[in-house]
Amino acid sequence: MPGSSARARTADEIVRELGNDIARYTKEGQVVVAGDWNCKIGNLASVSRDREFDRRNSSKRIDARGKIVIQLMNASDMVILNGIRGSIAESTYEGPGGSGVDDYIAVSEGLVEKTSNIEYLSEMKDILHTDHCGVARTIRIEGNALVESKDRRGRRQKAGKGGYGIVGRVRSEQFWAWLEEESDKCMDEVNELIKKGKEDVEQGWEALKQEF
After folding, report:
1. Which pLDDT belongs to residue 160?
2. Contacts of 190 by beta carbon, 8 Å cutoff, 6+ apart
3. What residues make up the domain containing 208?
4. What is the pLDDT of residues 149-160, one digit of tens each?
5. 58 and 120 share a domain?
6. 157 and 208 share a domain?
7. Tens of pLDDT along 195-212?
8. Does 130 share its domain with 208?
9. Does one domain contain both 159 and 116?
10. 65-94: buried (b, 16+ CB within 10 Å) or exposed (e) per residue?
11. Contact 110, 143 (CB under 8 A)
């Protein structure tokens, strides 16, 4: 996505807003952020509380949004796990336009030593029919909090020692309004392409993802 486009500017605003959310949730507990961030951070280091986490990345590419993300995470004492502690940040995306590292996991600095290195789940591409692999990690939680959860059948379960809970979600009306608007636009464009017979479903989505 061109950095000068309206969509890019909106995305950058949301990145900054994410920093505000992290700052708020950090006051309530440890924070974990994961997903497709659509940015390139190369070997930029994570720095938190005077600790520097050097990074090794399979891609050396750095873009403007990646620099902003690193600055925000460092300012929030969040550490991006991809490529630190002797690991290498592996490619998480592979499509017609090439491959790259787009999917990340970041945790509060206090969780780094309790967190495993990232696992890259390439099999998720076939399971979910996506051009992104899955990323996963294990976090060792200590404490005595009783946390209620549900299993796959919807039965209620309680965790004994250790556990986790959701302390908050993105509440920004601007974010959700933007997401709804962009989703509607994407669906309309895909349907139009398919109706005209110019693209099949997969090609239509690929074209939109490259633009987005």
Report:
1. 43
2. 201, 204, 205, 208
3. 172-212
4. 333 344 444 444
5. yes
6. no
7. 665 555 555 555 555 554
8. no
9. no
10. bbeebbebbbebbbbbbbbbeeeebbbbbe
11. no
Q: Is the pLDDT of residue 171 over 60?
A: no
> What are the Cα distances from residue 12, in Å, to 42, 83, 132, 176, 212?
18, 24, 22, 15, 13
184 lies in the same domain as 165: no
> CB–CB of 24/172 below 8 Å?
no
CATH (domain of 2): 3.60.10.10
C-alpha span between 93 and 102 (Å, rounded): 6
Query: Greatest CA separation found in the chain?
Result: 59
Record the tokens describing residue 29, joined without a space.
């507990």
Neighbours of 143 (CB within 10 A): 10
Same domain, 50 and 3: yes
Length of the chain: 212
For residue 112, count other CB atoms closer than 10 A to its CB: 19
Same domain (yes/no): 182, 113:
no
- Categorize the per-residue pLDDT at 184 as very low, low, confident or very high, splitting at 50, 70 and 90: low
Q: Which residue has the tokens 């995470």?
A: 73
Residue 47 parent element (H or E) = strand 46-48
Q: Report the distance separating Cα 128 and Cα 120, nearest Å.
A: 15
Helix-strand-coil percent breakdown of the chain, rounded to 5? 35, 20, 40
The count of structural domains within the chain is 3
Same domain membership, residue 83 and residue 23? yes
State both tokens at 160.
Answer: 């004994």
DSSP notation for 199-210: --HHHHHHHHHH
